[in-house]
């Protein structure tokens, strides 16, 4: 059963067709990757799904609901979380505080209750911290819990970005180039975490990625795009063998 359905998605900026006629579905429990050269429209597709951009045409359905007209701040509450290609964390807050910010959509108390620190607030706070501690353990961030983001290595900050998305408790997580800038060992860890997200957390993963070794290792299906348009979709092996993909993305062969 598909969790996400994207149909004829397009967005035009003036005369530029950044995304044009993209359709795909992501099944529940699937790891689905979008690949393509720089400027192909991959991150723009993410921005359309997470409602940063309003499409020129097309529809986006999540868990059976049409979310095309939803606002960006409504998406997390539906069960969609995302990371960003450029890390967007609070540099002068701790790892723990950044992860707790991922729980904001689950806050059910009001300002007065928070000020008085009523029992309901205390119960909610304990639950948020319990969920965040699970994420810290899952991503092996125990040693960094109380450290400021600004002083952390790039690879650790990348992991915290993933952790904040997981702290939301999503059904679908969008990973925008999770291996970008990481070492081979760190990329191997990301692969293990993606597999564990699906197996242990029951998550569905939609990923934009340039690292084909990671794509091959964790992806069930792949969509290749170029110039905002779909080229091929199938297993990683099928897509990489497609002549249009070889020409546009892998740089070998020529399209017929």
Automatic annotation (TrEMBL):
Coiled coil: none annotated. Residues 4-252 form the ABC transporter domain. InterPro entries: AAA+_ATPase, ABC_AA/LPS_Transport, ABC_transporter-like_ATP-bd, BCA_ABC_TP_C, P-loop_NTPase. GO terms for molecular function: ATP binding; ATP hydrolysis activity. GO terms for cellular component: plasma membrane. It comes from the Bacteria. CDD domains: ABC_Mj1267_LivG_branched. PROSITE patterns: ABC_TRANSPORTER_2. Keywords: ATP-binding, Nucleotide-binding, Transport. This is ABC transporter. It comes from Pseudooceanicola atlanticus. The lineage of its organism: Bacteria, Pseudomonadati, Pseudomonadota, Alphaproteobacteria, Rhodobacterales.
